[in-house]
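Hey, quick one: can you model this chain's 3D structure?
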Amino acid sequence: MAGVSPPAIETAGLTKFYGAQRGIEELGLRVEHGEVFGFLGPNGAGKTTTIRLLLDLIRPTRGRAAVAGLDTRTQSLEVRRRTGYLPGELRLPARSTVAAFLSFLGNLRGGVKRSAVDELADRLELGLERRIGDLSKGNKQKVGVVAAFMHDPELLILDEPTDGLDPLRRMDVLELIRERAAAGRTVFLSSHDLAEVEHAASRVGIVRDGSLVHVAFYPSVRDDQALSDYAKDLPESVRALFAGGELDLTSPAGYLNSQIFALTAPLVLLIFAIGDRAGVVAGEEERGTLDLVLAHPVRRRDYVVQRFLALAALIAALGAALLACVTVGSWLVDLEIGFGRLFAASVSVALLALLYCAVALAAGSLVPGRVRAIAVAAALAVAAWIFDGLAQAVDVLDPWRRIEPYYQALGQNPLREGPPVGGWGLLLGATAVLVAVAAAGLERRDVRQ
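Sure thing. Here's the predicted structure for all 449 residues.
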């Protein structure tokens, strides 16, 4: 049809054999302009082979590939002129400085604005005058990122772009990817990291044993088992820690649990609860305001209880906000999870946060020091989370899993099983005991001036 532009990437029957060994076979792929397309699969699945075929670095056994309508074999020079590439195994000249090497690459393209290089280097905290041989792996990766992005290409082909980067720089690179896509550029993002692809990609293709399956993230993924099959191949300890033991992305309950309730929502509320309650007694004591409060005719234990109840009301409000968000979100994407189960999961998260707020409150009431109170509560929360994951992977620990708070709140996935009433009772009982300990602790000790 006239006026319809060709896709950013299109392959048909693309096949590559290395002798008798298959690299990729009958690959049919279509990536649209302005899209971040995640190319997901384990090592050796054919991801790098596909990328090298698109760049004409290796030649296909059969089939064809095109970039923006340009044949990658007969028009490969123009394809590479429009493309920015970051290889998965980045090798750089050790004796060159970063600036000299990037200038060399820019000159191969007819010149690149120094301001673009400087902006990217500043954003990634990359020193341009340093010698490449003196750089760490993470800083070498930054050089590759700048080289891929500096000429603002129409198509970015990135093979494991965040490999070796620290968490902050990983987020910077993913943000760069999203910005380029928002500006109409296309990104072909190859990775074995499910979380990385999910954060950046609008669609994802999963490659296995040289064959590709197209999927889209939820809700379309419910109709395709490939993403869940990939997730099930992850180590059990990884699935246990980051998705409550499951990464069943094709069921509504499994998807919402892995995305929201297994880690993200508890983490946000725990950070808030621990930090806030550690400041009620220990923080006020450090600032000297506790003296002023307790100089008034108020019992110390009553003061502790009042402050706890105030936070309980605030956590209840946050839990209600969480419930409202997941209810609306579930309705918008048709997750078909009943309100009762969404309510049960939200209550479980709120009660878990309430328990650790009581831990922080008790720690600060028993022994002065806000930092100490935060450290104690955070350490116990992290230890319980890690133990819950390990107990699912190590049989000998599994019977003990039932005594830790994370299991009582979320270990049985309230989205699937409904309200864990017994677990709620245990969490509330433990919270009440901790508040009593906090009240008794402050009642019996001196208030530090």
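One thing worth noting: The chain has 18 helices and ten strands.
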